[in-house]
């Protein structure tokens, strides 16, 4: 079987609300689509894996983000090159913030990012917590947010989605997440991929096309996740 190599950034430090579930769903759906997933866990101090077709990273506390800051700045050039070559990446919450220019926490500590996204995050005293529903080019996406950071996109930075319910990037401008090339950032936990299989399959398509030049979809039975999505739609914030 053709392989797809997944780089999982900082699985020990950044895993709020079981964001590892994104890796599990990616692996399952890759398998059902006819590809063999190969996972590389990246820990602080490691050098970047040689073969990378997909990058994922989860959320975490402010202190955990500070703990991985030095390492992500070290591998930032490598990640930027991968992004420029079309490698899809899914970055959640804490990792999403680290893919921007900086995150200034509500105690005034600055955590530097790698500027793949043109955005900045500022910690606030109010935590934004609750169920979120957003509209994206991949359909409605459901998830759960919990962050103090308010993210503001640069003028030409595309968001991932428009907020229908919840706060999204900052609770003010109705944007949620970011997209640059095939790199996606979002505040949505859940984890996001089990509840949003159409989004997962688009990411898989991007990874497979980027590596192998062509992709053919297989029909997957998503009746269980359709039930979960119907419940998510009815949930209050
Ligand atoms: N520590 C960051 C914040 O509170 C990210 C939180 C998260 O990853 N859930 O904004």
Order of strands in the sheet with the most strands?
2-1-3-4-12-11
State the CATH architecture: 3-Layer(aba) Sandwich
Strand content: 25-35%
Order of helices and strands: EHEEHEHEEEEEEEEHHH
The strand count comes to 12
| Portion in helices | 25-40%
Structure characterization notes:
The chain is an alpha/beta fold and 237 residues long. Helix content is 32%, strand content 32%. The chain has helices spanning 20-33, 62-84, 93-98, 192-195, 197-212, 223-234; strands spanning 2-9, 35-42, 54-57, 89-92, 102-104, 110-112, 119-136, 139-153, 161-165, 175-176, 178-180, 183-186. The protein has a 6-stranded mixed β-sheet with strand order 2-1-3-4-12-11. Strands 5, 6, 7, 8, 9 and 10 form a 6-stranded mixed β-sheet that branches. The model has no long low-confidence stretch (mean pLDDT 97). Bound molecules: glutamine (GLN). Residues 16, 59-62, 65, 93-94, 146-149 line the site of glutamine.
Can you summarize this structure?
The protein is of the alpha/beta class and 237 residues long. It has six helices and twelve strands.
